[in-house]
């Protein structure tokens, strides 16, 4: 068991602020890292101390393992929390941390490696008895001989996906065999540049799909619990924008099977810490299939915290320290409904182009049922070097209808001045009859694009 007294937070923005708050609640000191551009950022001001780790561009700062480890050593940190994005699923950072005698607040490197290879993760899920969509073997640029044969076996349409990928990067749908090879080669190029691994695989595409995921916590000793499901179907280019819990499409029987599958996968891996098992839910048949497992805390974890009352980040820290979490499946309850809205510095009426600049005013009316996770405040600068996420607005209600109505009121009364954001786009989503009815397929934004981009 490792006592943790000081955590270096290897991230920036709202998740770094979020981790710092959980550290403070546990009586643990926090160390922020920042680029030269972020020295005045909110996450730096919230931490107990900080270190500048490099120039503005992420590859020279937040992705610089040597500088991060130097900061941890200089400040006497005995643990590292990677947050999400950047190096959150990097076995190199995890090995560097444990090799230096510090505690890695995340799963073991073999879990990160196994689940990070999406093709390998599919095979592991199958062995654990988790339903998996029909798919292919891995394809590299010098090994495409049976590409079309595999696509015919699976059945069109198919998705071309990077084996080492995530976040929807490079993912493309193919409806015509004649276009398959060109799409595969394009995806291999994106995979190589983004993940250092060009391998791709094919997976059956579900036309009427929902994206539903289960939050798990691996407790060690082959034990795991779930914190119910979230739906993340409102996406733009495979990037989530709105999440909610519970899913409006999951009944008690499907929930029982889905959460059982997620826990089984975690337990067969002897998983440690927070993870998310993602599924595609066929809206026509009610069947669900394994997509991937993310071996980190998710952007959307607050919706789960709002319905369960559990602090997922605090559980991560306790589990990493080898302390008994006190969690049991019977003791975890879901109450009410919650939705999360991602506020981005981007212009939805100009192809969602990023909008760097200074936030003159950032006002979201928080309260008893409204939580705002942000790494910005009045006067903060949104830099062009990083993800344009400004804040996450999480709203809770007794049921879905009350949550939607409360969220609509909160977003309508929010003010963000100085830069353009997707705030009006989020309001338009909530106003649609389809969203009100819970008809939230992954094709939602494409299906209602003209209504969502209405400026009236």
UniProtKB/TrEMBL annotation:
Fetch the InterPro entries from UniProt.
ATP-grasp, BC-like_N, Biotin_carboxylase_complex, Biotin_carboxylation_dom, Biotin_COase_C, CPAse_ATP-bd, PreATP-grasp_dom_sf, Rudment_hybrid_motif
Look up keyword ATP-binding and say if it applies: yes
Q: Which Pfam families match?
A: Biotin_carb_C (PF02785), Biotin_carb_N (PF00289), CPSase_L_D2 (PF02786)
Query: Which stretches make up the Biotin carboxylation domain?
Result: 3-450
Q: Which gene encodes it?
A: accA1_1
**Which GO terms fall under molecular function for this chain's record?**
ATP binding; ligase activity; metal ion binding
Any idea what this protein is called?
Acetyl-/propionyl-coenzyme A carboxylase alpha chain
Q: Where is the ATP-grasp domain?
A: 122-321
Q: What SMART domains would the database entry show? A: Biotin_carb_C
* Record keywords, A-Z: ATP-binding, Biotin, Ligase, Nucleotide-binding
Q: Tell me if Ligase is a UniProt keyword of this record.
A: yes
């Amino acid at each position: 068991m490792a006592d943790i007294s000081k955590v270096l937070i290897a991230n920036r923005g709202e998740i770094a602020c979020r981790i710092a708050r959980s550290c403070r609640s546990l009586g643990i000191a926090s160390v922020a890292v920042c680029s030269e551009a972020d020295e005045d950022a909110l996450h730096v001001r919230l931490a107990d101390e900080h270190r500048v780790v490099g120039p503005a561009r992420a590859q020279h700062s937040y992705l610089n393992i040597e500088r991060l480890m130097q900061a941890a050593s200089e400040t006497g940190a005995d643990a590292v929390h990677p947050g999400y994005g950047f190096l959150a699923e990097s076995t190199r950072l995890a090995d560097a941390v444990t090799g230096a005698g510090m505690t890695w607040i995340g799963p073991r490197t073999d879990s990160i490696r196994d689940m990070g290879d999406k093709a390998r993760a599919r095979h592991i899920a199958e062995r654990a008895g988790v339903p998996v969509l029909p798919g292919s073997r891995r394809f590299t640029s010098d090994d495409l001989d049976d590409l079309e044969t595999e696509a015919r076996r699976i059945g069109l349409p198919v998705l071309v996906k990077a084996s080492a990928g995530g976040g929807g990067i490079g993912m493309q749908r193919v409806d015509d065999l004649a276009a398959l090879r060109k799409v595969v080669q394009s995806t291999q190029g994106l995979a190589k540049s983004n993940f250092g691994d060009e391998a791709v695989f094919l997976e059956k595409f579900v036309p009427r799909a929902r994206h539903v995921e289960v939050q798990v916590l691996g407790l060690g000793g082959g034990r795991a619990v779930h914190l119910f499901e979230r739906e993340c179907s409102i996406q733009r280019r495979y990037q989530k924008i709105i999440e909610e819990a519970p899913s409006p499409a999951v009944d008690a029987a499907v929930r029982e099977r889905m959460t059982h599958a997620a826990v089984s996968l975690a337990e067969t891996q002897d998983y440690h810490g927070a993870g998310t098992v993602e599924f595609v839910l066929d809206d026509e048949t009610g069947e669900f299939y394994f997509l991937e497992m993310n071996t980190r805390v998710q952007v959307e974890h607050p919706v789960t915290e709002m319905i369960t009352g559990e602090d997922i980040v605090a559980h991560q820290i306790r589990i990493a320290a080898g302390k008994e979490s006190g969690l049991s499946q019977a003791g975890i309850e879901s109450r009410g409904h919650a939705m999360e809205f991602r506020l981005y510095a981007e212009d939805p009426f100009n192809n969602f182009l990023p909008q760097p600049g200074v936030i003159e005013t950032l006002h979201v009316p928080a309260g008893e049922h409204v939580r705002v996770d942000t790494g910005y405040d009045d006067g903060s600068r949104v830099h062009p070097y990083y993800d344009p996420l400004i804040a996450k607005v999480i709203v809770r209600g007794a049921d879905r209808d009350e949550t939607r109505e409360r969220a609509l009121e909160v977003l309508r009364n929010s003010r963000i001045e100085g830069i353009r954001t997707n705030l009006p786009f989020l309001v338009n989503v909530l106003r649609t009859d389809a969203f009100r009815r819970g008809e939230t397929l992954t094709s939602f934004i494409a299906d209602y694009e003209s209504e969502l981009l209405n400026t009236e």
